[in-house]
Records
---
Amino acid sequence: MNLDNLEKVLEKEPKYRLKQAKDAVFKNFISDWSEATFFAKDLRDKLNKECPLKIEADVLVSKKPFGSAQGGGSVKARIKLRDGLMIETVLMRHIDNRNTVCVSSQVGCPLGCLFCATGKMGFKKNLTSDEIIEQVIFFNRYLKKITLSEAEGLFQRVTNVTYMGMGEPFLNYENVLKSIRILNDKEYFNIGARSISVSTAGIIEGIKKLSQEGLQINLAISLHAPNDKLRKELMPIDKKYPLEAVLKAVDDYINKTKRKVMFEYVLIKGVNDSDEQAMELAKIMNKKLYFVNLILYNATGIFKASDTKRVEGFKRVLGKEKINFSQRYRFGDDIQAACGQFATNTKSPQ
Ligand code: SAH
Ligand code: SF4
C-alpha cells in the first residue's frame, strides 16, 4: 500500500474527491480502487497504478475455538513492508464484538530482553506511522471480509489497539504518537483513547512525554522482576533505567493524568515466581492506581513457564497483600502470536 501520491493524482479533481478517497480507504476499508465506484473507471485505474492499496501478507488463524477460555479467535498476519522487511501483527477477536489488534512499532527491538523472541532478532528499523496504521487497516479489511452482513452493509471493525507487538514503542516515540492520533481521529478509525494501550520496557523519557500529551490512553510497564538485581539480568535496559527511577516516572505520570497504570509481570519458572518474590513485588506495587497483570510465559527457547500450582501460589500472596492484579489470557500461542513470540524470518509471503 502506498498513498504518497494520492493528493497529486487527485489534484485536478474537486476538493471533496480527496475526502471521498480517504473515506473509502480509512472508513470503508476497500482493498482495491475498483471498489470505489463513485470514481470514473480511468481514475480508478490510475489510482490502482499510482496509489496501490494491496497489503502483502500471509495469515495464520488459530485453531483454538473462537470464544473459548483459551483465547481462540486470534489471527496472525506477517506483513511485508515496501522495503521488503517483515512485521507481525495479531488480531484477537472477543465474543462481545471487541476486536483488538496488537501492533508492532519497530522491526526487531534493540533492548534484547532475555525472554523475548523479538529481542533476539536485534534491531532493524523504526516503523513509520503509516506502517503502524497499515497493520490496523489490514485487520479492518480482514474483519470486513468475514463479518460483512449483506442486508445491512455493516461489518465489525478494530475497536482496540495495543502497542505490544514487535519493538519498543517509546524508542519510536514520534511515529507511535502520530499513529495513535490518527487511530483516535473521529473522522477515520475513531478508536477511543481509552481503547489504546502502549507498553514500554521502562523508557523514562517516553513516560514523561506521554504524561504531557493530554491523551487518555493506557500505559503499561513491563516489570517482570521485583528488584534490579534480577531485572537487570532479564532486561538489560534496567541498567540504564533502574526500577526506582521508572516507578518515580510512573508516579509523576499518575499525578499528572490520574490514570491507572498496568505493570506486566511474566511468570517464568524458577526465575521470578517464588512466594518471596511475590512478596517483594507486593511491596513495590502497593499503590492505589497501580495494577499488576500476570502473564503466562510463552515459550521462546531459554525459559519455561511457571506451572499452574506455582501461579496460584504467587497469586495467593498478591491477594493476601491486597494488590490489584489480573491474569492475562493466553491468546494465539498455537500460532506463535502470543506476547514475546513475535519474530520474523526472512521468508516472503506467498
Ligand atoms: N517493548 C514493549 C512492548 C512489546 S512486548 C515492552 O517490552 O513492554 C509486549 C509484552 O510482552 C511485554 O510485557 C513483554 O515483556 C511481554 N513478553 C515478552 N516476551 C514474552 C514471552 N516470551 N512470554 C510472555 N510475554 C512476553
Ligand atoms: Fe523489546 Fe519489549 Fe521484547 Fe524487551 S520485551 S526485547 S523491550 S519487545
---
Amino acid sequence: MEKYNVFDSTVVELDQHHSDRKGNLSVVENGSTLPFDIKRVYYLYDIPGGSSRGAHAHKELEQLIVAASGSFTVTLDDGKQKRSFFLNRPYQGLYVKPGIWRELEDFSSGAVCMVLANDIYKEEDYIRDYDVFLKYRDLI
Ligand code: TYD
C-alpha cells in the first residue's frame, strides 16, 4: 500500500447551512463530501482535562475527525514529520490518510470529537506501538 505523509492529510470544509433564527447545520454525505464512503461513526466525549487519546496508527482505515463541540489538537506523525491541527469548528474536519500516527490532546471542557470512518472497528487494523509503527513505515 502507498505510504502517505502528513501533508496528504488536510482540513476539509463541510457544507454549511445558516439560519439566523434556527442556528447552523453542516452535512457530510457519501459520494460528495469525502474521498471515502462512511461505514462507521463514533465520538469521544466526557474527556477529562489533560488526557490524551489516539496514540496509534491505522493500516488501512481512512477517517474524518471533527470537533463537533469544543476544541482539541490532533498531531499527525508519518515517522519523519509531525503536523498539528487545532480543531475548533464543527464545519471543518481533518481528513486522515491511512498509515499515519495520531495523538489527540488539549481537549476543551465539553469537547466532542466525532470520527467518521470508512470501515467497521477492526483491532487488527491498529498499530499501537510506536516502534512497530516505525518498522511499518520502513524507518527502523
Ligand atoms: P481506542 O481506539 O483505543 O480509543 P482512543 O484511540 O480514542 O483512545 O478505543 C478505545 C476502546 O473502545 C477500545 O477498547 C476499543 C473500543 N472501540 C470499539 O469497540 N469500537 C470502535 O469503533 C472504537 C473506535 C473503539
